[in-house]
Design brief:
This protein is mainly alpha-helical. It contains five helices and two strands, in the order H-H-H-E-E-H-H.
């Protein structure tokens, strides 16, 4: 829908600002990363292959732990994320390319 399209548009703007750099060394990290991401990468990022989520609760929990692992520290507040008025987003600005933010978008698509 409309929100998904806005997300994809934002991803394109993000990647454009990074000059569409595709450095394989750029990564969001594997700590708490959902297994489905490793499978996707092992399958050479086959976007047309249907992905199966065995346990939605486990998937959800793993995703949120992974997501929090690369957030700016100012956003972390116990088990939740905050949106402070002044935040430094530099931690995420260098997460472009095939191993970056696009993996989060792929996970949201499978979810």
């Amino acid at each position: 829908g409309t929100l998904w399209r806005a997300l994809i548009d934002s991803l394109l703007v993000f990647e454009e600002k990074a000059s569409f750099v595709d450095d394989p060394k750029i990564t969001l990290g594997t700590n708490h990363r959902p297994n489905i991401v490793a499978e996707f990468m092992k399958d050479r990022r086959n976007y047309s292959k249907t992905r199966r989520i065995d346990s939605l609760e486990e998937f959800k929990s793993t995703f949120w732990c992974w997501w929090k692992s690369f957030q700016p520290s100012a956003r972390l507040s116990g088990d939740s994320l905050t949106k402070p008025d002044c935040i430094e987003w530099e931690k995420l600005q260098d997460k472009s390319g095939r191993n970056g933010i696009i993996l989060v978008i792929a996970v949201l698509f499978w979810w």
